[in-house]
Amino acid sequence: MTEHTDATTDDADDGSHPVDAPGRHGSRAALYAAAAGAFCYPEPERVAALTADDAIESLRTAAATVDCAAAGDALADALSDPALDDETLADGYDALFGLPGDEGEYPVVPYEANYTVRDDIGARQRRIATVSGLLEQFDLARADSFHERRDHVAVELELLQVLAARRALAAEEGDRERAEQLALAEATVLDRHLADFIPALAHELGGAVEREAGPDPAADVYVAAADLATALVERDRAAHPEPPEPETGGEPA
């Protein structure tokens, strides 16, 4: 999982919009963090953090702040289910993401390249490399305990979390140039990585929970997390400037 320390808010979404309150970008960061956390393997400490009363209340507040109240409430309700614990959530994770079926395929693949470049192995490797490049650009690295590919849904959502948090800080400090740079970085990640990936993942997940035998409380969490991520990505993509054109001769970042 990506390691980071800073948290931030929002500036101008493009050159013509006024600077937003830092709290709006901080709310976006909190929501991306919640969605990313839900897609990490449910270790007991992580589940305890996700299901804490103050975390759930903060989730509702943040979602209302960025006009994603319905999606935020759905995830908060799922995380508040008394039947949900780390073992139940782990059973659901294994049923959906962790164990291949009879034909050797996973019910839901949580990796971007499998959705955006499909079966082209070379293109898939280049796509993963572009995500790695983005992580390096912003001084991020997977934690030693996180063993998934760099294009895992949790990594890419956490990248958006970090960018939103840094925008919050830039807005708070009045650093318009930095905020605009971060807005363009977000636009690149949204447009070239998450805009197609997250809705497709949500669609696959919705179908898989109907077929697989995982516990319902866990399925509710994963579906709600995917729906919240989709709502955030669609909202943010519509509000952001056009991303810069990719350099010729390689896989777009």
Automatic annotation (TrEMBL):
Domain of life: Archaea
The keyword Chaperone belongs to this UniProt entry's keyword annotation: yes
Region (Disordered), start-end ranges: 1-24, 234-253
Family matches, as InterPro entries: DMSO/NO3_reduct_chaperone (IPR020945), TorD-like_sf (IPR036411), TorD/DmsD_chaperones (IPR050289)
Name this polypeptide is given: Molecular chaperone TorD family protein
Pfam families for the chain: Nitrate_red_del
Keywords (A to Z) from UniProt: Chaperone
Organism from which the protein derives: Halorubrum rutilum
Sequence ranges of Basic and acidic residues compositional bias: 234-243
Lineage: Archaea, Methanobacteriati, Methanobacteriota, Stenosarchaea group, Halobacteria
Signal peptide: none
